[in-house]
Amino acid sequence: MALPKDIATDVPQADPATGPAGATTAQVAPVASEPRLIVETGLPGRIGTIAAPVLEGLGYRLVRVRITGEAGCTVQIMAERPDGSMTVEDCETVSHALSPVLDAADPVESAYRLEVSSPGIDRPLVRQSDFDRYAGHLVKIETTVAIDGRRRFKGLLLGTEGDAARIELDDIDKTAGKTANETTTESADETVELTVRIADIAEARLVLTNALITEALRRGKMQEQQREQQREQEQAADAPVRRSKHTKHSKQSRPATPKRAPGHRGD
Questions:
Q1: pTM to 2 decimals?
Q2: Exposed, middle or buried, 213 (CB in 10 Å: 0-12/13-18/19+)?
């Protein structure tokens, strides 16, 4: 089904790894993407299979595909650079490249609206590196299998251990998981750590906090500085080499014109 012409791009004002909206986009090289461990199924999964190689060829990574009933039908593509950033111009680049590919593959039977966005501040975590990058922040997860009759947990993300995520559960979740197959440990100060395979997590998302917003601003500023340095280096490399040519000019002497004394007339 052909896409409508109004292809949307949507980037928040700031996220943990996004520069200011409207920042100029530097060239992005193709990447060998780290595989996602948390993936979609059904139609979103088929769209993700189509979109992922297109994004990788442009130097971006697929984060998530979601289909909503907004504006009839909206296919939302979350994408990012390998460092986690995503500008408005990046979204436009992805939209223009992905639109004809989806149009040709025709995975959606009805008309739909394509929306490309950054992951946002309270972003989904889908790769193992995401769980390491955002260690120290609050996270909510939903598992594919129940742990002590529960599938939803909230706590402090501690990073990864092997192929598993480590989470220090908050007060309301400390009684969960103690007898499950997933590993849990309890220290003297009553903290409970849940270790669960990332592949067994159906969804993981950061919790919006002041600390996360502060981190968003810091990362955005740092990455904008890096992009500016890259642009300057590219401009310097593309600038033509100017060589100054010095030509020596010989001075030719001319015979001096004799000066006549005032009132003197020649013979």
A1: 0.72
A2: middle
- The torsion angle over the Cα atoms of residues 115, 119, 120 and 124, rounded to 10 degrees, is 130
Residue in 40, 38, 58, 51 with CA at minimum distance from that of residue 77: 51
pLDDT (tens digit, 9 = 90+) per residue, 35-65?
Answer: 999 999 999 999 999 999 999 999 999 999 9
| Positions of the chain with pLDDT lower than 70, given as ranges | 1-32, 171-189, 240-267
DSSP class of residue 239 equals S
- Which domains are seen in the chain, by residue range? 8-117 (3.30.300.70), 128-206 (2.30.30.180)
Residue with tokens 């009132």: 263
pLDDT in the model for residue 90 = 96
For the purposes of burial, counting CB atoms within 10 Å of the CB of 198, is it exposed (0-12), middle (13-18) or buried (19 or more)?
Answer: buried
Instruction: Supply φ then ψ for residue 223, to 5 degrees.
Output: -75, -30
Please give the sequence-ordered ranges of beta strands (E in DSSP) within the chain, or none if there are none: 8-10, 61-68, 74-80, 113-117, 138-147, 150-161, 164-169, 183-186, 192-197, 201-206
Which pLDDT does position 239 carry in this prediction?
74
